[in-house]
Amino acid sequence: MPRKPVPPKQIVSREPSNGKSTRKILTHPLFTPVQISTRTPLLETDYNFHKSNSTYFSDLDVSRTKLMTRIISPGFKKVNAQLEEEGHRGRMVVALGAVHVTFRKEIGIFEKVWVRSRLLGWDEKWAIIVSYFVRTKKGRVDGTNGPDKGEELCAVGLSKYVVKKGRFTVKPDRILRMGGWLPKKQPDQAGSETCNGEIKLSLADVQRKDDEAEDAEEGLESAQTPAIEGRVVLDEKTAAAAESAAHALSVSDADNSAWDAEAWDWEEIEEERLRGLKLAKTWLALDGELCEEFDKN
């Protein structure tokens, strides 16, 4: 008898460290996971008839594309138009910068699994995505055959994306804000602060650093551009088509006037962003260290 599909896992609420609220921050649509299902055909198995490690990456491509289309498309065309007015030329693309996968449980031939991806956090350049491969857990507590009991984790993936307009790097915060995902900062949040050892930039700081980054990038040779493993998640045509799928995000006005500040305030979203970055901090640092190690040889 076929098993029932595993529903998306309910994320447990947690209280922000500022003690202001007990709202479920991870149920904010920006951090809500997307889910796809997949199976392992015969030609994607290894000599043990388990899912080949290399095939996890193609499943991640599909899952991440679904997530990034939902997140990026609402503000994509607006930011692209702004950048054109600012003098930036070239196609605007979302590019994959790195992928890391940890394998925990083998996946058998034709076995159905679900891949859940969500936005973990973002910094001045990268949007970090975490993905989970899960399946229905088999057996009862005593180990005998019985009804399904929950689910188990088979693999975990970390990925990072960058948005480029030609050679100009577009900050994730800019696209998210234009897409209506982020509320306005309040006047008392305009200054830069330090939280968990990281600096929260004011809007003025962001604009200033945008200008500095633009000037610096214009002087770089193409050989100095960081290598990226993949492209073509979104371009202008794909973004236009994806807008219909994101019709529920009609709050995409640039002033974010449709946001209910009482439901989701900037501090809570910022806290979750920094928490996600902290989880990925070592991985992000390792990426640069490995490149430095290559230069030494």
UniProtKB/TrEMBL annotation:
InterPro entries listed in its UniProt record: HotDog_dom_sf (IPR029069), THEM6_lcsJ_thioesterase (IPR051490)
Domain of life of the source: Eukaryota
Transmembrane segment boundaries: none
A Pfam family of this chain:
4HBT_2
Looking up CDD domains in the UniProt record yields: 4HBT
Tell me where the signal peptide lies. Answer: none
Where do the segments described as Disordered lie?
1-23
Q: Which PANTHER family does UniProt cross-reference here?
A: PROTEIN THEM6, PTHR12475
Give the family from UniProt: Belongs to the lcsJ thioesterase family.
Protein name, please?
Thioesterase domain-containing protein
